[in-house]
Every structure is written in structure tokens, then in C-alpha cells.
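User: Please fill in residues for this 320-position structure.
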């Protein structure tokens, strides 16, 4: 394997559905070495679900790789592709509890926790809640979900100035009288029971969400209507809820994880989670190793980012 490659594709050796209470079930899978060092991959979104390439950040000979679809997305049920599905029990504290439930179900004592974008948010929240269960953290595209971070995404003074055509397409479905609060305006449409309303709204929302995911343009993923609705429904739910994080935010909890070895990787030209968030995390937590990749945006599959993430998991293969 060259330094810029990730590991070859692999298939799970085990999978299942974990009862999470009140009729919710979480899909999980394990790959790699059944007796290897446990590593947990947390997908982005929220609402994105696990992708096959997510398994490739880890040496399959060294790691017992655990992945799961967070509540109401991917193969977990009930699926939020139906806007009638309640997301009341889909919050960050509940996802943290799901991780702990899965850890116990799989008989894991401690594990490396890896998360990108929303996965970095959830990884930090989980580690701060259960620091004794985390051996290392590998974070990519740090998202702190502060009001200032959301202003970058949802006001004309932020990313809209760099992507004017895409911003225009995002605001076009919303009447001028509702554009002072785009998140609320989209929320009304994404939860409308009429597919003629919620499907176009989800497409427009996800069109803006997937804008500039990488430094160099790549074709957007081919999402069906149900997956698009689920992704938009869950992502909007978390943004409207401020990420369901403690009022003081994630930086205030750094002291609980200061002892945990950590690698943080962010693209210099990340338009989704600009590097000031990773920098602010590093300032609060200088013990965490920060890498700003000069030729990358937000995507975890971009070569410079991918290489550093694999280097981090390789380095942690033999640590306690």
C-alpha cells in the first residue's frame, strides 16, 4: 500500500440489528480481524449512513472495525425517508447512548473512535460522555455546530458568497417573506406530508448541502428520493436543534478528554466545516495533533486527507 492509498475494499464478517428501545433498531456491522483492536467509525450527516469505503480507513488485519447506521437512516429503522417518522428520540445524547449500547452488545471494553464531519461532532460528544471507553480519537472536518458555524452555511454572508449560483438555487423555493429564516422555512416543507412538497424541498436542501464537498468538483452521489428525504429530514432536525449539544458547547468539555491521544485533520479549503473550527478545537486542546491539508476541501476521500487519516489509524494500531 502506497502512502496515499487506503486499504482495499472488504466485506463485513458479521452484522445485525440492535434494539434501541421504543421500536427503534440500529443496524451494525463488523469487519476486519475479529480479535483485532476495536475501532468505531461514525458516519457523517447526520443522516448519511455507512458507505462501503468507510471500512477502508483501517488495517483489516489489525482492527476489529465496527460501523453502524445512526438512528432513522441507512438500514436502521424506522427510516426517515417517510417524513411522518418522528425524530423525537433522535438526538445527540440518544446517539451517545446507542454507541454505549452497541459497545456493550459487542463486548468491547475500549475502542478507537473515528469520525468525520458530523461524525467528528458525535465522536467528541461520545468521548466527553465516556472518556474511559475511548482509546484514541481520529477526527476529520471538525463541526462544532455553534451559531457562528451555522451562519456560515445559512446566511448570504457566508459560503453563499463563494457559491452564488448554488445559493440562488437553494433559496429559490422559499418565498421572499420567509427567507429571513431559511432553516425554519425548509423545516415546514421537509415535514409536509405531501411528497409534492417534501421531495423537492429535500432535493433543494441536499443540493446546497452537497455543494463543494471537495476542493475539485466531483459528481454528487446518486441518492433516490427516499434517501434524499431521510438525509435532509435528519440533517435539518439536528441543525434546528443546535446539534442537541450542551449549551456551553463541545469546547467546554475538552478537559474530560485531554488525556486521549487524538489526530485532527481538516482541509484548508473546506467550505463545509472551515478550518477555524478545527483550529479553535486545537487551541482549546493543544495536545491534539492538528493537520491542515493544503490541497483539500471537506471530503474524507480526498487524497491528502485520506493519507493522513490512514497514517493515524496505522500509528494507533499497536497502542494500548
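Assistant: Residues filled in for all 320 positions:
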Amino acid at each position: 500500500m502506497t502512502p496515499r492509498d487506503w486499504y482495499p475494499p472488504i466485506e463485513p464478517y458479521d452484522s445485525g440489528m440492535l434494539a434501541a428501545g421504543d421500536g427503534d433498531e440500529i443496524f451494525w456491522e463488523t469487519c476486519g480481524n475479529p480479535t483485532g483492536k476495536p475501532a468505531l467509525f461514525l458516519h457523517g450527516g447526520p443522516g448519511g449512513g455507512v458507505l462501503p469505503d468507510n471500512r477502508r480507513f483501517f488495517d483489516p488485519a489489525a482492527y476489529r472495525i465496527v460501523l453502524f447506521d445512526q438512528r432513522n437512516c441507512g438500514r436502521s429503522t424506522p427510516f426517515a425517508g417517510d417524513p411522518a417518522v418522528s425524530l423525537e428520540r433522535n438526538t445527540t445524547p440518544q446517539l451517545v447512548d446507542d454507541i454505549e449500547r452497541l459497545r456493550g452488545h459487542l463486548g468491547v471494553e475500549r475502542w478507537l473512535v473515528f469520525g468525520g464531519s458530523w461524525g467528528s461532532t458525535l465522536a467528541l460528544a461520545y468521548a466527553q460522555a465516556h472518556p474511559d471507553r475511548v482509546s484514541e480519537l481520529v477526527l476529520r472536518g471538525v463541526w462544532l455546530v455553534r451559531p457562528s458555524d451555522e451562519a456560515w452555511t445559512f446566511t448570504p454572508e457566508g459560503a453563499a458568497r463563494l457559491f452564488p449560483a448554488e445559493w440562488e438555487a437553494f433559496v429559490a423555493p422559499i418565498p421572499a417573506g420567509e427567507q429571513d429564516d431559511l432553516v425554519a422555512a425548509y423545516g415546514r416543507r421537509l415535514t409536509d406530508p405531501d411528497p409534492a412538497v417534501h421531495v423537492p424541498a429535500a432535493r433543494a436542501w441536499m443540493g446546497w448541502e452537497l455543494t463543494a464537498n471537495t476542493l475539485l468538483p466531483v459528481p454528487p452521489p446518486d441518492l433516490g428520493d427516499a434517501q434524499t428525504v431521510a438525509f435532509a429530514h435528519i440533517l435539518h432536525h439536528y441543525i434546528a436543534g443546535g446539534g442537541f449539544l450542551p449549551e456551553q458547547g463541545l469546547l467546554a468539555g475538552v478537559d474530560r478528554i485531554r488525556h486521549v491521544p487524538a489526530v485532527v485533520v481538516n482541509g484548508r479549503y473546506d467550505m463545509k466545516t472551515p478550518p477555524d473550527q478545527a483550529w479553535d478545537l486545537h487551541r482549546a486542546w493543544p495536545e491534539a495533533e492538528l493537520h491542515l491539508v493544503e490541497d483539500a476541501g471537506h471530503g474524507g476521500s480526498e487524497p491528502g486527507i485520506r493519507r493522513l487519516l490512514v497514517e493515524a489509524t496505522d500509528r494507533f494500531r499497536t497502542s494500548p
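For context: The mean pLDDT is 95.
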